Amino acid sequence: MSSAPKAPMKALTLRLQDELFAVEAGSVREILDLVPITEVPNAPEFVAGLINVRGRVVPLADLRVMFGMDRPEPNQDTRIVVMEIDIDGEPTIAGILADKVHDVTDIEAASIEDAPKVGMRWRPEFIKGIGKRNGGFIIIPNLGRIFETQGARSAHLAASEERSAS
Amino acid sequence: MSFPDPTETFRQEARELLEQLELGLLDLEQNPANDDLINSTFRALHTIKGSGAMFGFTAVAAFVHEFETAFDQVRKGQSPATPALIGVALDAKDHIHKLIEEPDAPQTGGQAILEALRIVIAGGTGADIVLDEAPAPAASIAEAAPVATGEQRWRIRFRLPGDSLVYGTNPLLLLDEIRALGPCTVVALTDTIPSLDVIDPEVPYIGWQIDMVADDPREAIDDVFLFLKDGMELSVEPLAEEAAAPASEPVPEGAAAVQLPVAVAIKAAAEPAPRAKVAKVADKEPAPAASSSMRVDAERLDELMDRVGELVIAQARLTQIANMSQDGNLKTIAEELERLSSGLRDTTMGIRMVPIGTLFGRFRRLIHDLSRDLGKEIEFVTTGEDTELDKTMIERLADPLVHLIRNSVDHGLESADKRLAAGKEAKGTVRLSAVYAGAEVKISVTDDGAGLNAERIRAKAEENGIITPEQKLTEQELNHLIFAPGFSTAKEVTSLSGRGVGMDVVKRTIDGLRGSIDVTTKAGQGSTMTLRLPLTLAIIDGMLVRVGNGRYTIPLAAVEECVELPDGVEANARGRNFLDIRGSLVPFLRMREVFGTKAPIEPHQKVVIVSSGEGRVGLVVDQIIGNNQTVIKQLSKLHSGIKSFSGATILGDGTVALILDTAHLVAFGQTYVDQGRAA
């Protein structure tokens, strides 16, 4: 991600446990209070729920699963961020559970750095970059990779293994 | 609003007409003396010619005109509709199709087809005609038709239908067209013009009377009014000599002397023609009971379906609120709305349903061509044409069925000598049938050929590396190998099938439609390929059940009955997963186990028996909540891998419920049966 765009990133900041995350504000459709969640039996834990967003059935994702965080019960700050996410190249509406939603802000492109390859608790491919604001870090997740379905992910891995082998 | 491209409209219409033409020709082959068929074929040709010329497809119009001229001999009964003729006519139809679809591409072969057509009509076989061959002597037969006895005086009277002006007809242009046929005198008949206060400016009150000198103009006049025939009055009569001099011609009662400045040339008719009345065209050919219809964009239908879906959800919420309230008026209106929306749902879905016969019709041509190319005599039998399926489903079924039929004819049916040697009729039979089976439609292609050759399939699959020689397969698994990619048992690759693509595509397409495919075969007696397809309706009736804290919808059409789970069975939880339903053993699945529900087990478990095809399975649930209308929403890619669910729906209280995929669950339950047998 060295070719980060020059223009500041317009981002929605949200909190998952103790970490601040930033997602592209342009892809956010709406932010909802907690609604009844329908559990999907046998679904991956990461997307174990479905919600009704204005008459559409929308999958609800819990990024905390992918980042190996604790998952306490929702409280009054819990929100659902409804976003358009590319899943295997198909734009899909999905909801993301957030422990708290903060604000929309600009993150200076210059302040965004690549995720370090080592010394991180999380899988590096899930992180697009790390920005800085007010002396703290903001994690910019790579939603495309996080939401990749199993089939696409293994194809992806095979391809990257091939690359590294050659 | 943008208007649709008129050329595209013509193309669409022409495609349908060509299809009709093709079916007509194929019917005619079976039934060569049927005048109705000949006439309808002729009509289709005529309409293509007319509208083709109107939209600037001159090549089409010219070609069809020649085709029509030749075919006229058949209509007049001067030439029989022989199979050779039908063959050439089908080629001609294909040529027209090409002309319409690719008007700019250079088209050759048209002349050769016409030549062949003329020769066939003259009694030849037409088989040996090739492009650029010298015109056969019989070519002039079309022109040899008896020609009218020269110019003569005719009187034409017509009144336009009341709505013709609304639809853009300009009577003056019609008059111009008639005038182009020969010198004539035009008189307006004003006797039916009402008084000014009741006049409707959009209604053509004026009739027209035209006296003209020409060769028999009846056909030409028919052409002029081609698009107005229905509902108009038209008479074309030859004028007797005694009524000759136009000056003394009494103007009809009440007709004003609106003489149009037309060059009048009078030539006394050579001989008085009998006053043969051609009569009102409208009465001449009663159109086959064609219900009026209109074209609608499929996208708009989808949109309508979405709206109805939303309405149904809103209605379900209202019903729920009304049920909680004490307000009698609210309850009444909620019930009323429920009735209305359910009616609206059925109607909307009905719009999208198309009888599968529209699809079956196309295959008759396929069989005809296959029969000719392979030299196999084939009888093609279709049943269940009026089975209705969703339109998109029908469109996507066309290709798989073509493959299956080709396969049956090419690989299934033996050659005539082999059949005779095996003690069968020389003529092979291919059956195509469609029938409802619960919430599914079953479409099967059956042939009475040699059946699948298990050894050859096995050998081929081993050769292609699909299976290993050690692998043990059941008969069913073996038969399914033909759907494996890269599989083909045909010893020679023919132009039709045998390239090893096709059957795997069939399987993929059917899977994509959430259907399944099944093969049964009997050596020496033929094989049957059966497709099972859901009706894929966007809205279905569902039965809402509860398992633990989750609510799920089961398509009601798949539900056979509901029973209580006997206590004894419950105690005996391990091992015996069968219920005795009136003497037959039905496997059952504890949905709480399937779903991994953690909530404590409840007393009085219910079993919903669902069926798919021949299979049945009982689904054990905690509670049966009731019936509801279910709008099917597709699951996103994130959940499409979970096979137990075919979709989701939104309940009256706004929460989401998953729809159980009964076909999958039944198949899952059947594995219990197989295990039970093995044990």
Automatic annotation (TrEMBL), chain A:
It comes from Devosia psychrophila. InterPro entries: CheW (IPR039315), CheW-like_dom_sf (IPR036061), CheW-lke_dom (IPR002545). Residues 8-152 form the CheW-like domain. SMART domains: CheW (SM00260). This is Chemotaxis protein CheW. GO terms for cellular component: cytosol. GO terms for biological process: chemotaxis; signal transduction.
TrEMBL record, chain B:
This is Chemotaxis protein CheA. SUPFAM superfamilies: ATPase domain of HSP90 chaperone/DNA topoisomerase II/histidine kinase, CheW-like, Histidine-containing phosphotransfer domain, HPT domain, Homodimeric domain of signal transducing histidine kinase. Keywords: ATP-binding, Chemotaxis, Kinase, Nucleotide-binding, Phosphoprotein, Transferase, Two-component regulatory system. Residues 539-671 form the CheW-like domain. Its EC number is 2.7.13.3. The modification Phosphohistidine is found at residue 46. Residues 1-103 form the HPt domain.
